[in-house]
Amino acid sequence: GESVGLHLPTLSVQEGDNSIINCAYSNSASDYFIWYKQESGKGPQFIIDIRSNMDKRQGQRVTVLLNKTVKHLSLQIAATQPGDSAVYFCAEAMDSSYKLIFGSGTRLLVRP
Amino acid sequence: DGGITQSPKYLFRKEGQNVTLSCEQNLNHDAMYWYRQDPGQGLRLIYYSQIVNDFQKGDIAEGYSVSREKKESFPLTVTSAQKNPTAFYLCASTPRGDLPYGYTFGSGTRLTVV
Predict the structure, then answer these.
(1) I need a labelling partner for B49 at 20 to 30 A (CA). Which of A103, B34, B58, B67 fits?
(2) Residue contact B39–A5, C-beta within 8 A
(3) Side-chain half-sphere of A46: how many Cα atoms within 13 Å?
(4) Mutation target vs A (from B43, B47, B104, B111; most A CBs, 10 A cutoff)
(5) pLDDT tens digit string along A23-80?
């Protein structure tokens, strides 16, 4: 069975509520930030990204907020659904590099 | 459909054995990557290849080896020198090897030492 995320912080929300998942990133020089969703036994899927010259970006039911002052990234999911249950990772990178630096992830559990 | 295919999905290795994990992409991406994922941790880079016939060590390359003879393929061998190989292994690719955009991940291989 799937063992990724056994020791991860967990956010439990009621179906239909909004979810906010937080991430502290490490490099003040990072130019680019991404949120990934990883379901059990699968690879990460791209959700949304944001560049360092932006504070906010919206997608379908998701919003990413970037606070460069405190090196904080958040993912907001509106009207959370059971299919949103997964592990969510943030990642950061510099434009000059191929390399993504991943956070350790947060497990989102949606209660019916 | 374009994508990355990893095989097998599950793999069991005996102590002292070498095993090879397959990664194939039909996205025409230049760069390919191997990551290791352990419980409670983010993805850690094992090896990467920015172009055919070239590859570099990542952060945790010890006990692993790779080859990049074709653009589409980037197999990872877990050798007997890797002391704790039980983990979830993810392959990824990007269109260009010098920029962090457009990462596509495979569905992973779970390796267990028995």
Answers:
(1) A103
(2) yes
(3) 16
(4) B43
(5) 999 899 999 999 999 998 899 999 999 999 999 999 999 999 999 999 999 999 999 9
